[in-house]
Structures are given as C-alpha cells and as structure tokens.
Amino acid sequence: MKWYFLYDSKPLPAAENMARDQHLLEQVESGAIDGAVLRIYQWAQPALSLGYHQKWQKSVDLEQLEKHDVDLVRRWTGGRAVLHINEMTYSVTAPFRLPFKRTVTHNYNILAKPLKLFTDRLKLDARIAEGVQTLHPAPGKVTPCFASLSEAEIQTGKKKLIGSSQKLGKNGFLQHGSIPMEDHAALLSSITGSTLDMSEYMDTVGGIYRRQGMDLPDFFHLADALKTCFESVFHVALQDLDSSLLNQKRINDLTRQRFSNREWTFKF
Q1: How much is the average pLDDT of 157-183?
Q2: 116-145 pLDDT tens trace
Q3: Mind telling me the catalytic residues?
Q4: pLDDT at 149
Q5: What is the CATH number of domain 3-266?
Q6: Can you say whether residue 95 is alpha, beta or left, with left for phi > 0 and alpha for psi between -120 and 50 degrees?
Q7: Hey, which of 12, 28, 57, 144 would disulfide with 16, CB 3.0 to 4.6 Å?
Q8: Where along the chain do its domains lie?
Q9: pTM of the model
C-alpha cells in the first residue's frame, strides 16, 4: 500500500485541524487518495478536544476553559479529553487494506510499532502498553485520556506518553495521536474538573529529555523522525501528499458547519 505524508508547518485552529482530518478520511474512503496518510500538525492556540461520544458536562469546566483561553472542540474519533498544547499531533488515515483491518485494537497494535520505534530512536525508554489500566474518576466526572492506559498505547514506566483514539469508517479509519512535549498537567486537571494530579499519570518528551540532561529537538526534527519510523516499519518511502487532493472548500465547510458549531461541540 502507498503511504503519503502531510506536514502542516503552520499551526491551525482546533476546528480546522479536525476538519482536515475528517476530509482526509473522506478522501481515503472514496479512493481519491489511494493509500494511507500520515499527517503531523500543531495547534494555533491551546485546545481541549473531546472524544466523539464524550459527555461534556462530566468532562469540562467551562469557566476554567474561558479563564485560561482554551478552545473546545469535539473530535470525530472516540476516547476522552485531550489537552493540545506544546505537543506534536499525528493522524493516520488509511483504507481497510493489509496491514490494517476493520478492528480498532488491531490497528492500534499495528500503529504502535512506528510509535515505539520513534521513542526508541529518541532514547525515551518507552514500551507498548498491554491491556487496559483504568483509574476511578471522582463522582460525576470522567477522567482525561492521559489518566489511563489502553492496549497498544505508549508508556514510560507507569505513565502514558502517547495517547491515541480512532474512528472506523465504512472503507477506512482515522487515528488521532497526541505526543506531549511539555507538562501542562495542572491546566488539564483544572479545565476538566479532575481531582487527579495528572503529572502522576502522564509523561512528556521534554520532561524525559530534561531528566536525561538533554535539550529537546526542534519540532521539524521530531516530525521528520516520526516520518522515518513509519517508513522503516512499513518499508515504504512516504510521498508528499499532493495538495490538489485536499478540497479547501470542503475543509472550510466542515470547519464552519461541524467543528466550530456549538450544536456539534455540545451534542452529548
């Protein structure tokens, strides 16, 4: 299967980031993009993304969101709340062709391989999580994504380092992934109303580098490292995605009508 690479060097608003990923899935499912796409991107300002089915009233403190000027967006993928700030975000969109299947856990395990290789090359001493480790939230609350480990996520010690979520479509799937660079655990707890000390449950690339007395590589270096890990695992050379395969009008429509729409954001 062919693999394509899309590197968005300019940080984008939360709603547009989600719209671009949904559009990529549409293009893959329709066959307009003949293969899989690895996209790497950043956020124009801090944002909290909710999983598709997540109930916002149990997951978000709107007063704290406004106080800290954090955007709120609902993802197309599942899972729970993720704070996007000083992180490298990846998405993979792919058709249901080998090595992928119409099974979430199978795809998680396949994509864990390049993610684990990425941590190896950065000397982060990480491993692939086995099984599910879930914490008990405070009454009436839902823990954030990084408060628990799911099968095939990436962990350092007992802490989550890379969190992922997935959406299965009719002919393909979309996987989102968050790779935090810096520790914003206190902010995450505040805006989600969590009583947990999130620093006990999540790690960051920058934190590991500092503990090792090293400087954090720049974003482009990290993005290129992740790209080469996908190439190594899948034995392909990722081709830059032709911009003509992205319909900006469709992306704008999705941004406005769905991901910027309060009815979508507060639908559950």
Answers
A1: 96
A2: 999 999 999 999 998 766 554 555 455 666
A3: 145
A4: 77
A5: 3.30.930.10
A6: beta
A7: 12
A8: 3-266
A9: 0.94
